[in-house]
């Protein structure tokens, strides 16, 4: 029988960086989904409690729910500007993590 040489796998620093970046973005996405679910739950409970009040009668019910959802999102810091900050923070965190890892493994910054 013929014998083949063993296969070797080489993992580079770029492979590790890509993996860690992918994991960081997945974690950020999961955190955003959890926050969105929390906001939706708060809005649902707020609209249910407002349903017993006089404000939620007739066509005002949709407007009341919209105002409560907007207020809940603002209270959690989930407005449009705040979400941009979350995304920027996640990207910055990933970049800092990548830089720290590169320092640990001895990869320096490229000369400009």
From TrEMBL:
GO annotations of cellular component type: anaphase-promoting complex
Compositional bias segments (type: Basic and acidic residues): 90-106
Keywords: Ubl conjugation pathway
Biased segments, Low complexity type: 40-83
Domain of life: Eukaryota
InterPro entries (UniProt xref): APC_suCDC26
Region named Disordered: 40-112
GO biological process: anaphase-promoting complex-dependent catabolic process
Coiled coil ranges: none
Keyword Membrane: no
Full protein name: Anaphase-promoting complex, subunit CDC26
Species: Hypocrea atroviridis (strain ATCC 20476 / IMI 206040)
């Amino acid at each position: 029988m013929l014998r083949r040489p063993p296969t070797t796998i080489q993992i580079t620093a770029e492979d590790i960086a890509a993996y860690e970046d992918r994991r960081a973005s997945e974690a950020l996405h999961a955190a955003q989904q959890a926050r969105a679910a929390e906001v939706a739950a708060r809005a649902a409970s707020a609209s249910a409690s407002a349903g017993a009040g006089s404000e939620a009668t007739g066509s005002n019910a949709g407007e009341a729910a919209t105002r409560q959802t907007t207020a809940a999102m603002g209270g959690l810091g989930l407005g449009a500007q705040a979400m941009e900050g979350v995304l920027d923070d996640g990207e910055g965190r990933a970049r800092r993590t990548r830089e720290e890892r590169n320092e640990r493994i001895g990869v320096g910054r490229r000369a400009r």
